[in-house]
Structure formats: C-alpha cells, structure tokens
C-alpha cells in the first residue's frame, strides 16, 4: 500500500528530497496543506476515522484536479485531534488543546524554516477550529511574512446543503446524512448501513437565545445530547449523494487553493514605514 493513499504522489510532500525542497522555485507562493482529522466515535455504523478519511479524500481529489501550474503539496495526514467531547465513547483518541496547538506550531515552524510562506491548516473535525485559529494567528504574529490559513474542510463553496433536509442542516452535525453519504463514496466497505440510526440532539433549550452551536452556545459533551453518538439521520444516506458531495467539496478546494496561491497579505503598516 503506497504511503500517499488518497493523495497524488507528485503532490505528496514526504516524497520530495531535501534537494527538491531546497531548489524549489517561488517557494514563498507554494501552498503547503496540513490535513487534520480525528480518531473518534461516529455512531454504531461508521469507523473512528471518519474525519481523517473525509479530509484526505477531499484534499486528494482536489489536488488531482488542481491546475498543474499551481504548486501545492499535502503534508502527511494528522490523524489525532482534540476529541475530548467524545471520550465517553470507547475508541476515541484525543489530544489536549495544548498538545495539538504545540504540534501545529512546530510543524508550521518547520515549514517556515524550509522557506515556504503559505500554510493551510485543513481541519475536518468540528471540535477543534478554535485551535487552528490560535495556531494560525500566533504563527503569523511570530513570522510576519508567514501566511497561515485556518480552514474547515466543509466551508468551501459546495452544494452539500442542497441534498440535506432543513432539520439535518440545522442539527445533523455528527455521523448524520452528509458524513455517512460521503463515507459511502470514500470507504464504502467500512460503512455498516444495517446499523445506521436517526438521532437528533435531545433536550435542547426551547424558546431560548442559547443553542448547541449558534451565536450563543453552551458547552456540551456528546453524551449530553445523544445515546448512540449520532447527531443526525444516517438512515437516509446514499452513495449517490456522497459522490456528489465529494465532487462539489473538492471543487471548492480547487478554487480555494488557487486563491491561496495568488494571495498577498495586506500590510497597511508598511505604508507608514
């Protein structure tokens, strides 16, 4: 089994030699992408690797379809993340926020030392975007010419929402229709549709400004809201939907990588220098 897995080998960073890195032209505009997932429960029907698998599959397809003249490379997938909201469910492996932040900072520093100036933190797990944002801001503040992008895999332009019910779009945040459909496309042999369930978050506050993930959220762990570990409706998932979601989200990433390649950091302060 090749190490590059979903990634095209010509865009897999570990396959480069140090001389390849040293002599790479226009290094400050080469896009280096760190995919970040999680190993955590995803209900009775999905494997622990969902977030990692989705991130790798989306990025791999995007890099395959990316214009050859746009230089971009995938770093090895970081499987572990901050998943402590799921740790009451066996199999979940979690790093602390401090450990994950340290790993991202030290990876970023290594990329900077090699001469690269554009790093994408491509996060596929909903429990850790804040860590990505802190890492990105701190790296840029330390190295003012280092452009770091803390991005969530699902937030690029895509049509996934068109395939989901209104209730699923509002509350189906974990192991529901979208993730299950995409896994049917990416790793169908690891999906157990005979065990799929429908369970939406229970006992949410009613007639309240407070919500699970809205503008005024409350802290929660997964077992507060669900018995099965599912937050959504996995029973309606299909591979056809998953194929369409994969195509759409990866196309959004092609566009995003292009934009990052040509991005220039605003530096108003230089006008006063």
Features:
two-stranded antiparallel sheet; alpha/beta; Rossmann fold; 273 residues; 36% helix; 4-stranded parallel β-sheet
Number of helices: 8
Low-confidence stretches: none
CATH topology: Rossmann fold
CATH homologous superfamily designation: Creatininase
Strands, total number:
6
Strand residues, percent: 5-15%
| Name of the CATH architecture | 3-Layer(aba) Sandwich
The overall number of domains is 1
- Calculate the mean pLDDT score and round it: 97
- Measured as a percent range, the helix fraction is 25-40%
What is the molecular shape? globular
Describe the oligomeric state of these chains in a short phrase: single chain
The biggest beta sheet, please? 4 strands, parallel
Which sequence of SSEs, written as H and E, runs from N to C?
A: HEHEHEHEHHEHEH
Q: Radius of gyration, rounded?
A: 19 Å
End-to-end Cα distance, whole Å, is 54 Å
Which class in CATH terms? Alpha Beta
Helix/strand/pairing class, anyone?
Answer: alpha/beta
Strand order of the largest sheet: 2-1-3-4
């Amino acid at each position: 089994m090749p190490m590059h897995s979903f990634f095209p080998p010509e865009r897999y960073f570990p396959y480069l030699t140090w001389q390849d890195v040293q002599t790479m032209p226009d290094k400050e505009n080469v896009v280096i992408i760190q995919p970040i997932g999680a190993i955590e429960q995803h209900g009775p029907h999905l494997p622990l690797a969902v977030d990692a698998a989705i991130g790798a599959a989306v990025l791999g397809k995007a890099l395959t379809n990316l214009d050859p003249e746009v230089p971009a490379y995938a770093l090895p997938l970081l499987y572990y993340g901050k998943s402590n909201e799921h740790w009451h469910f066996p199999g979940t492996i979690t790093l602390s926020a401090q450990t994950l932040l340290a790993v991202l900072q030290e990876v970023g520093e290594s990329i900077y030392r090699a001469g690269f100036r554009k790093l994408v933190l491509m996060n596929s797990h909903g429990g850790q975007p804040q860590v990505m944002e802190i890492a990105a801001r701190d790296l840029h503040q330390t190295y003012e010419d280092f452009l770091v992008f803390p991005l969530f895999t699902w937030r690029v332009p895509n049509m996934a929402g068109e395939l989901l019910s209104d209730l699923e779009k509002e509350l189906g945040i974990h192991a529901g229709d979208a993730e299950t459909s995409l896994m049917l496309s990416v790793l169908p042999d690891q999906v157990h549709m005979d065990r799929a369930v429908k369970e939406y978050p229970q006992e949410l506050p009613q007639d309240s400004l407070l919500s699970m993930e809205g503008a005024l959220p409350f802290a929660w762990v997964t077992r507060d809201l669900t018995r099965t570990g599912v937050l959504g409706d996995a029973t309606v998932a299909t591979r056809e939907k998953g194929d369409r979601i994969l195509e759409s989200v990866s196309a959004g990433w092609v566009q995003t990588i292009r934009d990052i390649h040509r991005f220039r950091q605003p530096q108003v302060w230089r006008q006063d220098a």
